[in-house]
Amino acid sequence: MLGTRLATPLLTAAGCGGTGRELEPHLDLTTLGAFTTRSLTLDASPGAPAPRLVETASGVLWNTGGQNPGLQGFLASELPWLAQRQVRVVVSLAGGTPGEYAELARRLGNAPGVWGLELNLATANREDHGRRFCDEAYHAGKAVAAVREALPRTLPVLAKLAPGPGLVDVAGVVARAGADAVVLVHGAPGLAFDPTTWRPALGTVAGTVSGPAVLAQALRCVWQVHAALPQLPVIGAGGVRSGFDVVQMLLSGARAVELGTALLREPAAPVRIAEELREELLRHGTTDLAGLIGAGHTTSRGEPR
Ligand SMILES: Cc1cc2nc3c(=O)[nH]c(=O)nc-3n(C[C@H](O)[C@H](O)[C@H](O)COP(=O)(O)O)c2cc1C
């Protein structure tokens, strides 16, 4: 379903493309598969104390604390700007309860410009976000079912999950609850210290690691979920920064890919990566992107691995 409805397989990842305005000078947002917003809550949130992002050896450690303008602020000043430009918008939602997810979905479901909803069900920041995130399959399933029921029209519902030992089970639960796809992954829990103060480098103790450090982990998550649930569309996220990284995600089973940290340093990364992807395919004598999805799960003779 997703592969055919997206113009290209490259989306932005939640929280990494600002409001869209920041990216606009660098790329035509309508060429993206979709633009994903930062996670929205019902009420505006000031977020975590600074610093919220530090560089580590192979990625960033971050904790925004869920800073966002709240539903009203988003509807008043962010969504209209994106809708006017006909950008396909995936709105990321963060609720503390299934009822909060449902309320957000109800009020966004008919808003012009909303192409899909992504439910942030990840736990990586749990200790800092407190009740905002839920990991247990039970809560994740309830949140997806509540959103499905609340939606006034048919919209893609994506469930974004954090890596973890129960990932395949959670993916199965959210799929049965009505998710159209899972987004894997949100990043991994992490910690870094400030070399001068010897205190934790973020304003909170822990954060989430994103960027190249999590690519291999994300690929494995995509692979495992695709192997267990081959009918469930997967969108890969985590450390993608080249055309070959996209190929790896597709071979593992992803139908599309979200770009996050890559945008922070290089806002035009989707343009370069799309070009590299075309070159990768040409080098391998194919233009059949769809043929790559899950192809890593079979041998060159087409037998299952
Ligand atoms: C600064 C920053 C803010 C983020 N904010 C959100 C967010 O609001 N909601 C969410 O679901 N994920 C958020 N993420 C996670 C990304 O969407 C993505 O899943 C993760 O960073 C892994 O992809 P990447 O390695 O390409 O960045 C954020 C990541 C970063 C670096």
Automatic annotation (TrEMBL):
Presence of the UniProt keyword Flavoprotein in the record: yes
GO cellular component, one term: cytoplasm
Annotated Dihydroorotate dehydrogenase catalytic domain residues: 2-281
GO BP of this protein: 'de novo' pyrimidine nucleobase biosynthetic process; 'de novo' UMP biosynthetic process
Single annotated GO MF: dihydroorotate dehydrogenase activity
Keywords: Flavoprotein, FMN, Oxidoreductase, Pyrimidine biosynthesis
Protein name, per record: Dihydroorotate dehydrogenase
